[in-house]
Amino acid sequence: MTVASTAAGGVMKSRFGTVKGVLFDIDDTLVDLEYSMTTALREVSEHLLPGLDQAGWERFGRIFTHETTHYYDQYLAGELTFNEQRLLRGRAALGHFGIELADGEESHQWLTAYIQKQPSYVKPFPDVLPLLDVLDRAGIPYGAVSNNVHDYQRAKLDGAGLDRVTHLVGTDTLGVAKPNPAIYLEGVRLLGTEASQTLYIGDNLLLDAEGSTSAGLLGVWLNRTAETAADFSGTAVSTLDELVPLFE
């Protein structure tokens, strides 16, 4: 992506136009949630799947992180608790390999172990801190808008060493989730900027790039995994490093 920009006094001129603030998605944008989930899942499930090869563990992780997201949608809709959707996703992944978690103590122990271990593996991507450093130097305010509740995501950011991301909007802030325009606009309000002068960066094409653009922000798709989207005509980057020159 070729960019040309000037930044001064918290205002940046670029190919996007005037940018005065930046909002980020959190999971798989700022922090590598998929790594933390799959690593913890393997640690708490190896005793149930002895001898499973690397391809099997990759398949196990894929089911949990990508093929059971309808349970997370049910959580967002208020039909399941956060931990209920976790357990259902774990059962689906284990069930693929013929393992059934029994109701009661066995399920409780598996879920408790996962809850305890998963946060310790949450780390920021290597390209996050350099961009935040540049934003700080340029005087550009930034924050995060997430499709999970505020306090859980606050703890996640703090645990990952991202306490400098002080502005945070969760699904319980206004009682809505992405792609409802109100959740992005609340982030804009917290930054004290205008939607048309605020970048929104996230890894989910629909919820982040297209959702924020529909709300009037400058949506950027962080396509870390080189997905193809023939109908997408907006701005995409493969790493946050590509955005650093905008603010230097």
TrEMBL record:
What GO molecular function annotation could you give as one example from this UniProt entry? hydrolase activity
Q: What are its GO biological-process terms?
A: small molecule metabolic process
User: Which keywords has UniProt assigned to this entry?
Assistant: Hydrolase, Magnesium
Membrane-traversing stretches: none
Which co-factor is required? Mg(2+)
Mind telling me which NCBIfam families this protein's record contains?
HAD-SF-IA-v1 (TIGR01549)
Q: What is this protein called?
A: Haloacid dehalogenase
What organism does the UniProt record list as the source? Pseudarthrobacter enclensis
Q: Which taxonomic lineage is given here?
A: Bacteria, Bacillati, Actinomycetota, Actinomycetes, Micrococcales
